[in-house]
Amino acid sequence: MFLLVSECAFSQNKAILCDKLKKITTELPDLVAVMMIVTREDTPFNLPQQKSAAWEFFKSHGTLLSQKEFLALRTDLSELICLGKSITVGGHTWCHLAAVEYFIWVREVGGNLINIDNSGTDSSARGMLFPEIRMGEVDAMFDKAISVFKDSIILFFEWLGESFETGEIDEAIGWLKISWTDCQGRLTGGMKDMAYNRYQCWLQKYVLLRHKQKPSIVLPDIPASSRPHLDARGGNSTQTTRTNTCVAALASLTIAPSRSSSSPSPSSSEVLSSSDDAIYGAGDV
């Protein structure tokens, strides 16, 4: 039995996420509630352009900075990092939140499937966490969801033929009250993490990997017995010896590993996508 599914449309496209939620509600007909959080930025995020001032700025450091070091290089250190302000480092904006919205859909016990396209006030609500807190309708719908959760759990235990003390549910529900003020306050920390994660993935994927030590070819020490013998005229004594030597050399070629430590590849699709590779050319800077 599934009661609640929650997704965030920041690391993924909103339209794609809506389609995903529609499939989930179809596959889980007993789903009670769906919550979607949509986070928008002031402008769509872009990576620093190759050879731009930001590119050269971070390239000159030659290594990955810690989050503390990264944020200490902000353009304007006189301003605290706060909501409504961009995090700009090296002349590039790494994060600038514009709005955070909440959407919630609730299904009555035994009612119809949740319809993501339905914005009716009886089964769905919409609220805003930033730039201002307007979560009253979401709170009301969430309270309705909790009531449905309780009814669903009781019915589930009845189906099992077991009794269940509702007091235990009431006690657990008491822990589900949400402080939206606290939630908004935590967005600042999220901005810092997002800005740094974007910088980290970009630097490791596009800058540091392009400037690692070039791999060198190491030729093996071929035993004297396998080396070609020269005759008096300076030529090989036998074609077979020369051929065998070449084969041995080619078979023994190795690529010397770079001395610089390997960098972990970016793991967050919300930070960089594979399409970002098209931004830069294949050659070194």
Structural overview:
The chain is of the alpha+beta class and 285 residues long. It folds into two domains: 224 residues, no CATH class; 40 residues, no CATH class. 36% of the residues lie in helices and 15% in strands. The protein has seven helices and eight strands, in the order βαβααββββαααβαβ. The strands form three sheets. A four-stranded mixed sheet has the order 1-2-5-6, with helices on both faces. A two-stranded antiparallel ribbon has the order 3-4. Strand 3 and strand 4 form a beta hairpin. The longest helix has 28 residues. The C terminus is likely disordered.
Share of helical residues: 25-40%
The shape, in one word, is elongated
The helix tally amounts to 7
Strand order of the largest sheet: 1-2-5-6
| Order of H and E elements | EHEHHEEEEHHHEHE
Roughly what is the average pLDDT, rounded to an integer?
A: 76
Structure classification: alpha+beta
Tell me the fraction of residues in β-strands, as a range.
Answer: 15-25%
Distance between the termini: 54 Å
Query: How many separate domains?
Result: 2
How is the biggest beta sheet arranged?
Answer: 4 strands, mixed
Tell me the total number of β-strands.
8
Q: Mind telling me the C-alpha Rg? A: 30 Å
Quaternary status: single chain
- Parts with pLDDT < 50 across at least 5 consecutive residues: 227-285
